[in-house]
């Protein structure tokens, strides 16, 4: 009977645990199915990515190869262009320095030591004169000016432009572009056709067209540079202008012609006794070689820029027409009253001043004062 009861109890326990076992089996099956689905989805994604990668891999390699090649080429091109730019810059600097008619400032005593190395009487005098300029007149630097027959005109006009000095008062009242025609038609100076442009001896009927171009260049450049307020910018503009031979020589020929115009005007006033003229014109007409405007042009003015430069009387005239006091240190006149002179002697106190330095009254340089 006890056995029968044990069997019944076992049977009842089996009946109670059977649903639990089936429930565990069902849950295990579901988990297995879920894992299989995740694995299948992951596999599918990996396969898709692999297929896409295989497709773009070759193209990506080609693109990267192209980019690397382009980068290498650009680096080579950059290096080549940098070298080319460096070469071109050197070329321009050499050309600019070669063409520059007014060089950069250098130490005055250093310049003297290079130029006057001997112990001759003249060398000692020059050394003493340079030391006098350095210590007494506070001239510490010098700008060398190209040694040709435009030298004095160049040294003066460069300073007029670089200092921003504007047109003289008499030019503001006249249109300088019309001066050639005025001398021809109003005053009957048909001999102007014999005017020489430096080495260009004779131009005939073309003289008026050439003179007008010279006057236009002078007026344009003077107006443009004098309108600049910044000193350094004006200096750069002057360096560029005075390295352009074509424009530079037009400036000098325009100033030469204005000198002629002033001489004609003074001659007519003296002849008609209209008004008192400055003493410099009396000195000019007192010379046998410049007793009238024509002889002045033929014997003096035409040679400027060709075979000769400015003489002292022409220096007076230059200062007068520009309305500037030209102070000249004449080193070969050291220890005399003529060591320092002013052109013209009759200058107004309100005129601006430019300074020149010369060793022989033929070639001029620009002294730089530093106090």
UniProtKB/TrEMBL annotation:
UniProt cross-references to Pfam families, sorted A to Z: Peptidase_C101
Keywords: Cytoplasm, Membrane, Transmembrane, Transmembrane helix
Cellular component per GO, a single term: cytoplasmic side of endoplasmic reticulum membrane
Region (Disordered): 1-33
Transmembrane regions: 60-81
InterPro entries (alphabetical): FAM105, OTULINL
Composition bias type Basic and acidic residues, residue spans: 1-29
Signal sequence annotation: none
Organism domain of life: Eukaryota
Subcellular location per the Swiss-Prot or TrEMBL entry: Cytoplasm
Transmembrane as UniProt keyword: yes
Record-stated family: Belongs to the peptidase C65 family. Otulin subfamily.
PANTHER family assigned: INACTIVE UBIQUITIN THIOESTERASE OTULINL, OTU DEUBIQUITINASE WITH LINEAR LINKAGE-SPECIFICITY A-RELATED
Name of protein: OTU deubiquitinase with linear linkage specificity like
Organism for this UniProt entry: Chrysemys picta bellii (Western painted turtle)
Gene encoding the protein: OTULINL
